């Protein structure tokens, strides 16, 4: 028996050592960590329990029978993050370039099934060259099994994809099916067809980073939610994100003790937001003033900047915040902002995260490009997401809320549980100037002094239909509050709504606009 134990110890030592110093040096030369260094940064120290470390492929031909390394290029298992169970699989680029084969895929399938059965988050550390060509169609079938499991786990357990190297072809669809995608600048890329294929088909010349690097997907495509300069910071932020999420859809996000007083007066809010609706301001500063200790995690920070989606805490409880950003495009809703917010609302609803919506929206972005691009269809995605959400929902109108955008941004008419407004709010079909030009077109045209008449009628319209208490008098706003009381009011309302229960109609699933 002792000889067998000694043999096992030798094998395990070989597994932990990896494929050798040369391969490790090549990995380091690219500025990348090894697979076990990455897992060590993600999980609590000493918590990782590996699954199938001795697995080898059984393929033959093309030289594979002579090369059968342990792990088959992917390390799988579970551990803890801040004491809570998290499952992980991580490609080892040093073995077959992290390419997926039959045994490799089987290991991933198994750990995905275990995560779903255990009701715990799944994190993938991606650094692979795609399908293992030598294994042919079995490798492609392996990807199909991953996609099917991604879909089955969607909305059941949090799924996080961390891109730490290349991800090309069909392999890129797995991260796209998950809840969050992290990328590292310079070392990670995602694309369906690489630069060589693009050049051959279209004649366009472009680098890998220019085609599918972190900045491209964080700013232009919206594929990436978070982008960082190095792996250490990236994995630290993954840990922070996990601390804000529940383990599964049957639990609520973890609450933490809070030293920031729930009744803290937010005196600076009145100065942060100009009364003049045409003057921009930074909504991020408003969020910082309201949430616990000014800390929040913004999702898709660099994409669709005219809307903010963030996870934060109020009195130690996790909330999702959706807010117009007047600093960008005056805070209007457009195609990208609608898509960004809709996905975030669906995420919050799936994982029992209450939603707080901060409104200062002048409407939808006009233009031929927006109409031809399907702003109706894309705007409807956000409308559908809010209407379908059953978590506690509170909306707060800071300044202006005009037209269809007001309705879409979780108005009381589409199911917000509570709606508050500051005394500076203006809720209307459109701005006073535009409304006066439509309603009083004839009077203005016939006046001796059209500009003076227009100004008079604009003032009259504002006084009659856009004063701060008009909506409250009609029950469309539950209360008009002092901005300084915002934090206290939101925390009190969320505490009351914590036991909210809502029934959906019986159906297999809805058919949301695409």
From TrEMBL:
GO terms for molecular function: propionyl-CoA carboxylase activity; transferase activity. Keywords: Transferase. SUPFAM superfamilies: ClpP/crotonase. It comes from the Bacteria. The keyword Transport does not apply. Residues 1-257 form the CoA carboxyltransferase N-terminal domain. It holds the Pfam family Carboxyl_trans. This is Methylmalonyl-CoA carboxyltransferase. Residues 261-509 form the CoA carboxyltransferase C-terminal domain. One of its GO terms (cellular component) is acetyl-CoA carboxylase complex. It comes from Streptomyces diastatochromogenes.
């Amino acid at each position: 028996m002792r000889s067998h134990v000694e043999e096992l110890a030798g094998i395990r030592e070989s597994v932990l050592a990896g494929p050798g110093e040369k391969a490790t040096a090549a990995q380091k030369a690219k500025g990348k960590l090894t697979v076990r260094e990455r897992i060590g940064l993600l999980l609590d120290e000493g918590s990782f329990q590996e699954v199938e470390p001795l697995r080898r492929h059984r393929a033959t031909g093309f030289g594979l029978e002579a090369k059968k390394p342990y792990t088959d290029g992917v390390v799988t298992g579970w551990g803890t993050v801040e004491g809570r169970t998290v499952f992980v699989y991580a490609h080892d680029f040093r073995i077959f370039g992290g390419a997926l084969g039959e045994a490799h895929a089987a290991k991933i399938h198994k750990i995905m099934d275990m995560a779903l059965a255990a009701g715990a988050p799944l994190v993938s550390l991606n650094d692979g060259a795609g399908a293992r060509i030598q294994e042919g169609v079995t490798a492609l079938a392996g990807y199909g099994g991953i996609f099917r499991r991604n879909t089955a786990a969607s909305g059941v357990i949090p799924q996080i994809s961390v891109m730490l190297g290349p991800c090309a072809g069909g392999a890129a669809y797995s991260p796209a099916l998950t809840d969050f995608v992290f990328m590292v600048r310079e070392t990670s890329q995602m694309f369906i067809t690489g630069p060589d294929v693009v050049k051959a088909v279209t004649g366009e010349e472009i680098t890998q980073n220019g085609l599918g690097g972190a900045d491209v997907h964080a700013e232009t495509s919206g594929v990436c939610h978070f982008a960082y300069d190095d792996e250490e910071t990236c994995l630290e932020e993954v840990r922070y994100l996990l601390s804000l999420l529940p383990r599964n859809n049957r639990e609520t996000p973890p609450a933490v003790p809070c030293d920031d007083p729930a009744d803290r007066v937010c005196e600076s809010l009145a100065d942060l937001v100009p009364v003049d609706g045409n003057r921009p301001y930074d909504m991020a500063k408003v969020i910082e003033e309201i949430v616990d200790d000014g800390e929040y995690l913004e999702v898709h920070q660099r994409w669709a900047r005219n809307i903010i989606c963030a996870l934060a805490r109020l009195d130690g409880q996790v909330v999702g915040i959706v807010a117009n950003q007047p600093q960008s495009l005056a805070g209007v809703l457009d195609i990208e902002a609608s898509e960004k917010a809709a996905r975030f609302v669906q995420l919050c609803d799936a994982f029992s995260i209450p939603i707080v919506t901060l409104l200062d929206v002048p409407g939808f972005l006009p233009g031929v490009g927006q109409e031809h691009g399907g702003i109706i269809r894309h705007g409807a995605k956000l409308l559908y997401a809010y209407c379908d959400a059953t978590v506690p929902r509170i909306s707060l109108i800071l300044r202006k809320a005009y037209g269809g955008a007001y309705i879409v941004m979780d108005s009381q008419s589409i199911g917000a549980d509570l709606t508050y407004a500051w005394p500076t709010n203006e809720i209307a079909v459109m701005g006073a100037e535009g409304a006066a030009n439509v309603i009083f077109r004839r009077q203005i045209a016939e006046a001796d002094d059209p500009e003076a008449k227009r100004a008079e009628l604009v003032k009259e319209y504002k006084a009659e239909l856009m004063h701060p208490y008009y909506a409250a008098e009609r029950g469309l706003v539950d209360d008009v509050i002092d901005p300084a009381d915002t934090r206290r009011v939101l925390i009190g309302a969320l505490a009351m709504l914590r036991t909210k229960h809502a029934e959906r109609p019986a159906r297999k699933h809805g058919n949301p606009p695409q």
